[in-house]
């Protein structure tokens, strides 16, 4: 199953108020495993960057000044995601911004199915923090490079979080793929003593130990059956 882990950075919180997308990062997964393929782009938002937004992601007016408009790379973006299911942290936010950008350039709104990992986390850990940093901490995922929000880095971290939330690491018990595929045929190491399969005859020592044990019991069932 092909999925796209996706994240955006923006100039604010509300696309209906004129805020714009300034960065998109996407990671391709097949069966929750990253393939190494990605899409990443910065965009000139055609507006000044509010101080609050810049504090979150660190993208300045000067940095974005020579970046392409969303319209210039929209076809490449749409071709990359195709009809894959999207995996997004707080999906309504990113989808709302992307749909606003698509409408501006005369494209159809996104019709992809999607999974919201915030909802996944809240169902799995009710009452606990569900932001990306908290989930990285919970699952032991190294996010030390995340000093600012960044769409591609956040997508890479989210891909690992999504794997944990979906139980992916438990599916093969952490074994290498070639071992996991043949797990049903695993054999016991040669130097480990293995008792013969039942039925097997008890030894004289075992029978004596059993008789001694019966003497310590009151009205044992074994004597009645015998």
Structure characterization notes:
There is one protein chain. The chain has 226 residues and is α/β, with parallel strands linked by helices. It has one domain: Nucleotidyltransferase, domain 5 (2-Layer Sandwich), CATH 3.30.420.10. It has a 5-stranded mixed beta sheet, with helices on both faces. The protein is elongated. The N and C termini lie far apart (60 Å). About 14% of the residues have low confidence.
Summary, kept brief:
With 226 residues, the protein is of the alpha/beta class. The chain has helices spanning 51-57, 61-64, 70-81, 91-104, 117-124, 132-139, 151-165, 168-171, 177-180, 204-214, 221-225, and strands spanning 2-10, 21-30, 33-42, 85-88, 114-116. The chain has a five-stranded mixed beta sheet, sandwiched between helices.
Which terms would index this structure?
5 strands, Nucleotidyltransferase, domain 5, alpha/beta, 226 residues, 5-stranded mixed sheet
Main sheet attributes: strand count, strand direction, barrel closure: 5 strands, mixed
What spatial form do the alpha-carbon principal axes imply? elongated
Task: State the secondary-structure class.
Answer: alpha/beta
What is the strand content? 15-25%
Question: How is this fold's topology laid out?
Answer:
Layout: E1 2-10, E2 21-30, E3 33-42, H1 51-57, H2 61-64, H3 70-81, E4 85-88, H4 91-104, E5 114-116, H5 117-124, H6 132-139, H7 151-165, H8 168-171, H9 177-180, H10 204-214, H11 221-225
Parallel strand pairs: 1-4, 4-5
Antiparallel strand pairs: 1-2, 2-3
């Amino acid at each position: 199953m092909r999925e796209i882990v996706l994240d955006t950075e923006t100039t604010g919180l509300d696309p209906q108020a004129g805020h714009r997308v300034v960065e998109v990062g996407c990671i391709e997964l097949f069966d929750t495993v990253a393939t190494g393929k990605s899409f990443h782009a910065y965009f000139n938002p055609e507006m000044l960057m509010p101080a609050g937004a810049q504090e979150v992601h660190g993208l300045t007016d000067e940095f974005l000044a020579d970046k392409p408009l969303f319209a210039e790379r929209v076809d490449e973006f749409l071709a990359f995601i195709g009809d894959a299911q999207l995996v997004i942290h707080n999906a309504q936010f990113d989808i709302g911004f992307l749909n606003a950008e698509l409408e501006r350039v005369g494209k159809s709104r996104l019709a992809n199915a999607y999974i919201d990992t915030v909802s996944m986390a809240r169902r799995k850990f009710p009452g606990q923090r569900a932001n990306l940093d908290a989930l990285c901490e919970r699952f032991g995922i190294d996010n030390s490079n995340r000093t600012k929000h960044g769409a591609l880095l956040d997508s890479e971290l989210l891909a690992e979080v999504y794997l944990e939330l979906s139980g992916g690491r438990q599916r093969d018990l952490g074994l290498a793929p070639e071992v996991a595929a043949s797990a049903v045929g695993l054999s016991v190491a040669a130097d480990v003593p293995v008792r013969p399969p039942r039925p097997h005859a008890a030894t004289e020592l075992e029978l004596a130990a059993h008789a001694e044990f019966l003497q310590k019991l009151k009205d044992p069932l074994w004597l009645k059956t015998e």
